[in-house]
Amino acid sequence: MNIRPVVLAILFVPVLSQQPLTQKAPEQTGAPQNPSPMVEHTRAHPRLTEPSPQGRREKLSFGTLFVPQKLQSKSQAPVFFFFHGQGLVPEVAAARNGMVVVSAVLGAGSRVYAKPFLDPGFFGNLLQEAETHAGIKLGPITLGGWSAGCGAIRQIMSTPEYYDKVANTVMIDGIHTSYIDGKPGPLESQIDPQPLQIFVKLSRDAMEGKRQVIITHPEIFPGTFASTTETSDYILNTLGLHVRPVVKWGPMGTQELSETRVGKFLMVGFAGNSAPDHVDQLQSLPEYLSWLK
Questions:
Q1: Are 35 and 135 in contact (CB under 8 A)?
Q2: Which of 126, 269, 150, 129 is nearest to 199 (CA)?
Q3: Residue 115 in domain
Q4: Range(s) of the domain holding residue 277
Q5: Which DSSP state fits 158?
Q6: At a CB cut-off of 8 Å and minimum separation 6, what does 177 contact?
Q7: What pLDDT shows up at residue 30?
Q8: Helix %, strand %, coil % for the chain, to 5?
Q9: Number of domains in the chain
Q10: Mean of the per-residue pLDDT values for the chain?
Q11: 27 by DSSP, 3-state: which?
Q12: Confidence of residue 293 (pLDDT cuts 50, 70, 90)
């Protein structure tokens, strides 16, 4: 999705290989989606307003490093790479959950976020750079992405040398693919499954307790490419899992509608089909990270 946030934070394949970027996918090329309402009056949409947490910030060749004050005297700390979000939200999330964070905003479309990581050495170099600037050993590794930022997760986790080095992945309203015929169907849409296979693999491993995976989605329907609801349904169907309907409050005043939890795999669906509902997902990052515990 290409909605700009108010405040700025891959499925089973026989052989895990680096996934090429497909030229035809609208969500990768930045083709416009159907417009979503920019206002929504049913619920309040609170935003993080607390002061920026204390700590050390440094610009890296890619993104910004933030080391919370309480971690600066440590010899090792967990590290969180967050794509399509910077500043207050990922910093608050990291400080609350005792993590160092590297956050970046590159632009619109998941292709923009995947492109740097087409170079198999890019992520490894970024990790080394972050560790050098932090002055402490960084690990375990958590990857997180909101909206288009999930394109970075798809590409990194499709690079074999990093797959087993990443402990956790958090995909926030950002797993998309294209429609086979370029448009949604009148009933069950036919979506391109290839870009989703790395997310299925990750989820299956999480079900077996090998890693932690969190996937969230509201009900936004982009129209020109598959929604996160449709891709989430595909992942669950491929894994042989079923949605468990729930009705309860979620983070930041959101309304949770469904939950599927097996082993260390968690998928949560939320109400909402407007731009504020999309930004709610980003603003909930601090609590999503706490779910990893």
A1: no
A2: 150
A3: yes
A4: 52-291
A5: T
A6: 25, 27, 191, 192, 193, 194, 195, 196, 225, 226, 231
A7: 53
A8: 35, 25, 45
A9: 1
A10: 90
A11: helix
A12: confident
